Each structure stands twice: as C-alpha cells, then as structure tokens.
Amino acid sequence: MWSYGGVIALHTTEREGWVWLSVDGALHHDTSGQLQRRLDALADEGRVRVVLDVQPGATVDFDALVTLVLSRNRLRREGGELLLRVPSADVNRLLELTGLTDLIEVV
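^ thats the sequence. predicted structure below, dont judge the formating
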C-alpha cells in the first residue's frame, strides 16, 4: 500500500494477469504526480496491463485526467492497456463529458 500524506492511498493487487491499482482520495493537482509515478513504476516493472480501480469516495480533476491519458498512452506503447473501474456516477459523468470514455475503457 502506498499512502501520501493521507490525501491519496494506492493499493496494488494482481488478478488474472492484470494489476489492479485501487485509488482512494482526491486525485488533483497535488496528487496526480504521485499517481503518475506509481503507474510509471508499474510500467518500468513490465506490468503494463492495469485496471485503475477508482474507489467510490475518490474525486478527480483535470490534472488527474491528464495523468490517465499519459499513462494509457505509455502502457499501450509498451503492449499493455489501462482500464478504469469507476463506480462513482460523478466521475463517470466527468469522463463522458471530456470524451475520455472514447479513449479509455471503463469496466
């Protein structure tokens, strides 16, 4: 479990060949870099099939969306994929409004 000042918590598990990275907390300007570094570390380890599991209480802003796009692009370049699991209606709506549901698969 990776935790950053109580603002964001990241927990990694493996399921059926995919890395599930659970995110809990506020994904915004101050924490998006931390998420990016964790996703980069997974890619550096060759773990390029990632499901980002955004927990129900998590919030997402524009900086976090940029992080998702950059991470998705890197993982795809390396033969992998980034999928999102987003149970929050608010976050789902944000992804739809920004067109990211056309770029990143929501499962």
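The radius of gyration is 12 Å.
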